[in-house]
Amino acid sequence: MSTSQPSVSIVVPVRNEADNIAPLIEEITAALDGRWAYEIIYVNDGSTDATGERLAAIMKQRSNLRQLRHARSGGQSAAVRSGVRAARGEIVATLDGDGQNNPAFLPDLIAAVEKGAGRVGLAAGQRVGRKDTGFKKFQSRVANGVRNGILKDGTRDTGCGLKAFRRDVFLMLPYFDGLHRFLPALVRREGYDIAYVDVIDRPRHSGVSNYGFFDRLWIGIMDLAGVWWLIRRKKPTPEVTEVNA
């Protein structure tokens, strides 16, 4: 792969996903090769299995694959933020590293941001046909209903890892643990539009979940209150022009 400046960066946060590394990278490349100049950034969030070694081996074959490593696990939001800060593309797309998010939907998400002509700050995947247990689906419906009722973000599913956004828009958002769960509300807060893309969920390739889900509502209740406060306190962004002598 070319090492030229990428226009798109794919950020994948992972912790202890060694067996899912190679299959997912193959799917990402199949979806994007020939369409964009891109890079893949895996953020190894303090893995204790062979995740780092598997990535290092594939990096020898793919010059557009990068690995960032957290010395200790900081959580999914921290991993996504590390990846976005290191990204070289103007558009960043994210997906979970367990294989449950299908990379075949990445082109639709990236194209939605491009077609937004600067007005679309985020393209959010909305899962259909979820492969979670009935209890998790129920929790997710309750949490999404409460969140949407309070924040009015117009999003039925914020837990999907498949997203694409403008890097500069993401970096202007206030950072906190759990940020990735509130991207639609926070991007709207900055005055940008949201595009939605239906994506088909599937079972993870192997292993077990290493990150928590927002559908455990009690974990996100303080974050929900904080984001509501941020939205309420937002002032219109001044229109600034420079006056020359």
Automatic annotation (TrEMBL):
Keywords: Cell membrane, Glycosyltransferase, Lipopolysaccharide biosynthesis, Membrane, Transferase, Transmembrane, Transmembrane helix. One of its GO terms (cellular component) is plasma membrane. PANTHER family: UNDECAPRENYL-PHOSPHATE 4-DEOXY-4-FORMAMIDO-L-ARABINOSE TRANSFERASE, UNDECAPRENYL-PHOSPHATE 4-DEOXY-4-FORMAMIDO-L-ARABINOSE TRANSFERASE-RELATED. It holds the Pfam family Glycos_transf_2. The keyword Membrane applies. SUPFAM superfamilies: Nucleotide-diphospho-sugar transferases. InterPro entries: Glyco_trans_2-like, Glycosyltransferase_2, Nucleotide-diphossugar_trans. Coiled coil: none annotated. Residues 9-170 form the Glycosyltransferase 2-like domain. This is Dolichol-phosphate mannosyltransferase. One of its GO terms (molecular function) is undecaprenyl-phosphate 4-deoxy-4-formamido-L-arabinose transferase activity. One of its GO terms (biological process) is lipopolysaccharide biosynthetic process.
